[in-house]
Amino acid sequence: RMKHDDTTISSWLQSLASFCGAVFRKYPIELAGLLQYVANQLKAGKSFDLLILKEVVQKMAGIEITEEMTMEQLEAMTGGEQLKAEGGYFGQIRNTKKSSQRLKDALLDHDLALPLCLLMAQQRNGVIFQEGGEKHLKLVGKLYDQCHDTLVQFGGFLASNLSTEDYIKRVPSIDVLCNEFHTPHDAAFFLSRPMYAHHISSKYDELKKAEKGNKQQHKVHKYITSCELVMAPVHDAVISLHLPKVWDDISPQFYATFWSLTMYDLAVPHNSYDREVNKLKVQMKAIDDNQEMPPNKKK
């Protein structure tokens, strides 16, 4: 599975992973066996075959992980799901609805969504502490990056394709993730983040209905109250994640807030939205001006 220099993954494994992704996207082949194989390899402490999962998610869902991104792509990745799909990747997500659904169904039917996330998060540290002394430093770095990239890619797929109810039902609370499953804290908050956003939004809607009022200051107050009510249990849960002396320097509230926010919570990338909207307008105008294209194709 490695080239002769023992520092890079073999070309045949990379080609096989790409082939698997292309075949599973085009043909309705049973996915459970492949997903279970990757999970079993991770259980055994082997992360080479994560490359297969990475390619399957990329081909079937259109979510790609690239090592070098332009500034425009980085800006687009701080926006919503639609902006990420339009401007965050080199290849736009097209015609992946059916294949994404098949991948989602395979994960949910065989209960592999959360186990794969946990195994990837655990293996990320396992690459360093369990395999680090046996492998070349360059390869260890490559495998670590592969674990992290695939976790981010896979977690992004789950957050954008699972219904809120399915996601909340499968992902446990932050203290369970960290204390029982020994998930690294950054990965645990990465998995929990979509739940917090949903709970805050639901609580905010509930408070708005309970007390009618359209003043902006009332809305802000209700939103702050919603955040406090939802995040209070999280503030209590994170205390057990660190030694008491850690909380002498920072508060649990600051810690939980830092890890629960995304870039989209801090700022809206207006320039990126405008850029992508203008691109779509140019494409629409080009289609309208194309005299050779039949009218039914323009719709």
From TrEMBL:
Pfam families in UniProt: Tho2 (PF11262)
Cellular component terms (Gene Ontology): THO complex part of transcription export complex
Annotated ranges, domain THO complex subunitTHOC2 C-terminal: 247-293
Biological process per Gene Ontology, one example term: mRNA processing
Highest taxon, organism lineage: Eukaryota
PANTHER family assigned: THO COMPLEX SUBUNIT 2, THO2 PROTEIN
The name this protein goes by in its record: Tho complex 2
